Each structure stands twice: as C-alpha cells, then as structure tokens.
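Input (Outer membrane beta-barrel protein):
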Amino acid sequence: MKKTILTMAVVLLSTMSYAQFQISASTGYAIGSAGMKTGESINASGTENAYGSYGEGVNFQIRGTYFFNDTFGADLSFGYLNGADQTISEVDLPNQQVDAIARARAYGASLSMVYKFTNNVYGRFGALLKVGGKTEAVVSNKAVFSDEVAAAQGLPSGSYTQTNYVEDFHGVFPLGFVAALGYKYDLNSNLSLFAEAEYYGISLKRKDSEIQSFNTNVVLPDGTVVVEGLYTIDNLPDGYVKETTYVDELAHTNTDSSKKLAQKVPYSSFGINVGITYKFKGSAN
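Output:
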C-alpha cells in the first residue's frame, strides 16, 4: 500500500513539475459543412432549394489549456458565433416578394484533449455544447392586392401590404464534437501566435420560438403609407402566433396553431482560426 501511494505521489509530483497553463484568444470564419436544406427560392420559372448551415459565420473564442506533460493536455473553450445569413424563403413573383433569412447568435463551450505532435503542431478533439443564444429569423413580405380587393377598399391598382417581423428560435441544448489541427509560432517564452483548422459537428433540435416584433402597413404603388400598423405584435393576423412550441408528435385532430412538429437544424462547420496564446511564467515549453 505504501509503495502504491509513493508511486502515485511521484507521478503527481512529476506532473506538477511540468504542469503548464496557458490562455488563448482567437477569431476566425467558418463555412457550413454537410449543409442541409434551409429554405427555397421561388420565381416565375421555378423553385430552387437553398442549402446551408447556421454554423457559418464569424466566431470568437477564449480558451484555457492545461498540459499534464510534454504531450497531453486538457482544453476548455468558450466561444460566440455571429452567424451568416441563411435563406429561408426568397420569393420573386408579380404579386408577392418575400425575403426571409435566418442567422445564428450562439454561445458555445467545448472540452477537449490536446495532443502535441511536435512543439509547434498540435491537435484537439473533444465534446462541443451550445449553451445559449438563438437563431434569429428576419422576414420581409410584400403582398400586392388583387385589383378586386384594392377597388373594394378604395385603393389604386398595385397597392400592397408590407409586413416585417423578427422571430427568435431556441433549441434543446445539443451535444456535438469538435476537432482541430493547429500550428503555433513562438514569439518569445510566453507569447505565441497560432493558426488552426477546426471542424464542428453538431445539430440543434428546435424547442420553441417567439415573435419579437411585427408590423404590417398598407402602401400605395408610389410608396406612400396609407395605413400604418394594420397588424402589430399585439394584433397578429390569422396564421401567426406569438409563441410556438415544437413537439415530436402531433395528433391529426390538433387545432392548436401554437404547436408544430420539431425539426433539427444544422450547425456543423469547417473554419480557420487565428489567435494569440500566453503561457504563464514558470511553465515548461
């Protein structure tokens, strides 16, 4: 028993004598990988699918890494994703024009193991978790009145409604994985620059959504607004609800428009990050 305790103490002391802690800050840009269908583009000649990933965009990360020895370490990272616009609906027809996009505003964390191939080349692999944020949908919908409806309301031909609204979607906290391969360049004994290629594999299941703002105006062909706020967030038109819950099962007899079937949306991406690392004094190289 004493021998076992002595051996463990020696291993612990040798690890502590090497122990190196460093912090890093980085930014980068990621593109969608294994993109899934996000929406459709419709015009007079046909319909085209739009593909993408909400993981595309600019990211910022802060990372703490603790090396147990000259080869292995553990890495804890926190990041923010400012996602690029993804097409949800794009309609260009004589009587309707729709421009609906969605983008991620997400916070995430990862816990990874780090392996040094050389003093300059390293790899990371671990678990990825989205811990907060939203997918924000921004919609603009111009709907032209038919001549009959316009005449009935005393409006000139070509008058239309202009609807603009923002809806935030939230998801169940997902678990994914992250892998990266990087190269660091030492500026001195404490500071290093690094660049890395990073892959995120993750999807998010929708949980609920909420309309944050809503406005519909009636507009003349020359752009003059004749009715402002025909519909607002406190007076939504038929077919819209302020809050929606996403579920895995709906009965055929369901009449509750605030419930919809859940779906998974893609956040997987492949990106390049660049940043700077500070190694605390007294750490080994």
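The longest helix spans residues 2-18.
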